[in-house]
Amino acid sequence: MGSSEIAVAVVRRWLALALEVITAHEEELGRLDAAAGDGDHGATMVRGLRAANAAVEKTSDGAGRLLIEAGAAFSDASGGASGALIGALLSSVGRALSDGPFDTATATKALQAGLSMVMRLGKAQPGDKTLVDALKPFVDALAAQPADQPLPAAWRAALPAAQAGAAATREMAARRGRSAKLGERSLGHADPGATSLVYLLQAMEMALAEKCE
Amino acid sequence: MTKLYNNPADFREELIEGFVAAYGRFVRRVPDASGVMALDAPRPGKVALVIGGGSGHYPAFCGYVGPGLAAAAVMGNVFAAPSAEQVYRVTKAVAGDAGVLYCYGNYSGDVLNFDMAELRCQEEGIDVRTVRVTDDVASAPRGQEDERRGIAGDFFVFKIAGAAAARGDSLDEVERLARKANARTRSFGVAFGGCTLPGQSAPLFTVEPGRMELGLGVHGEPGVQSSHMRPAREIADLLLDALLADAPPDAGSTVAVLLNGLGATQYEEMFVLYKDVHRRLLAEGLSPYKPIVNEMVTSLDMAGCSLTLCWLDEELTPLLDAPCASAAYINC
Q1: Strand order in the sheet with B185-193
Q2: Which of A99, A165, A167, B21 has the least CB density, counted as fewest CB within 10 Å?
Q3: In angstroms, what CA-CA distances link A124 with A181, A192, B81, B332?
Q4: What are the pLDDT digits (tens) for A137-192?
């Protein structure tokens, strides 16, 4: 398989695994969301990922195009702020994923584009108790990997930064979104968006291991 | 507790189908979109008022679609903003040649999705403007009015914008009048009990028995003060104290009044409360103009009510009085 065919296989496998992993944690995500939101984050993520998987079944283009379609379908099926943000993350990663080599440098660049899109749209900064608190440490850690490190190994090495970032949201009071109005009540619970983002990244680790190693 | 549903995941879709089946004399389904549109939309030469938000707040939002009111409502899942794609599709269905005004309560999910749709429409050459309703004085202090969330004040802003659009005002003018109506509208609420989403067995939030929460948001956002339950006349004073202390500059003395039930509070209780609201308004030298005691923006089965004042002037009054016809509000 060439590099672009591998990328396509990885994206398809990632979406399928992401749906499996998030479905397995649907209840946990709902509980976290109920602390300061309306308790539907798990259900919303599952709905979005189902739609994203259905959308890529109908698409046969490159990995970037698949992610753009997946992001659009995710946003539309999920609705709300998280649907818009995660969908925009997928779509902007897809747009930035050039046809170049499917390697650590390309993936880092694409994720940096996704991160800045999410921060711009959601107006969220690190420390606001959002998915940015998991995504930004991950993207920074990925960028710090040696350039010649194969993507699966680099991805694996960067994952603990996302997990630590998501765990740290327990000590934060929300400052963005509807839960910001519930600031204090969110203390002691990890942010559901940061938590589900870690699951998405873990699903990608599995997809990369299966398809690239 | 929400009791009537089949599959909770289908709640929005089934409510849209049922609403259109019941009120087909006012609305039809927007093809391939989660929303309803007025039978006469798109209206040539008229600005299209597009409202929307999460479901769970009926009559907001679909109940206010019809002649003299909104051209369309975009309907999200329960307590979730509609996606940008749905806002876009609904906009395309009703946009005429005079532009589009988006009007909705100020919540981050709605802002994100409506803004993305607005951008996409602008790129296609459709002139779209936005006025967010920010009437809830409990949600941010004076000086930060733009941060406030939108609750029952939606109704007055929608009515005034819809009437200006129906009159044939330009988009600049409809936007200006909607902004002015919002700037002169204030709400404050009291809650006695939380609400439960379809399919859930526990309420989203609770209010302890024998207590009440002042300023509690319609999705359980915390209030400004928790108190033991009080007699209706004291609640009337608490609500009015908050609103009158926040009166807009150049307020004048004529106020449109809405005492709004949140879903589980009885009309007759609200009349008892309204008696004291009315008396206090008169004592303050204010003239209540065509008061409304009704459910206009609810929150599933939440117990409680809110009081909204819209300080009128010679420009806003005729728009409030203008005829309109929709499933939830008819003025003739």
Answers
A1: B225-228, B211-214, B185-193, B303-311, B254-261, B287-294
A2: B21
A3: 15, 15, 18, 47
A4: 999 999 999 988 999 999 999 999 999 999 999 999 887 776 665 666 678 889 99
Preferred mutation among B83, B195, B224 to probe A, highest tally of A CBs within 10 A: B83
Cβ–Cβ pairs < 8 A, chains A and B: 86
Q: Is A182 on the interface with B (CB under 8 A)?
A: yes
Chosen from B75, B112, B118, B226 to mutate, greatest number of chain A CBs within 10 A: B112
Q: What is the ipTM, given to two decimal places?
A: 0.84
Which residues of B are annotated as catalytic?
A: 219
pTM summary value: 0.92
Q: DSSP string spanning B164-211?
A: HHHHT--HHHHHHHHHHHHHTEEEEEEEEE----TT-SS-SS---TTE
Q: Is A38 within 8 Å of B79 when comparing Cβ atoms?
A: yes
Q: Are strands B211-214 and B185-193 parallel, antiparallel or unpaired?
A: antiparallel
The sign of the torsion formed by the CA atoms of B81, B319, B327, B190 equals: positive
Tell me, yes or no, if A47 comes closer than 8 A to chain B by beta carbon.
yes
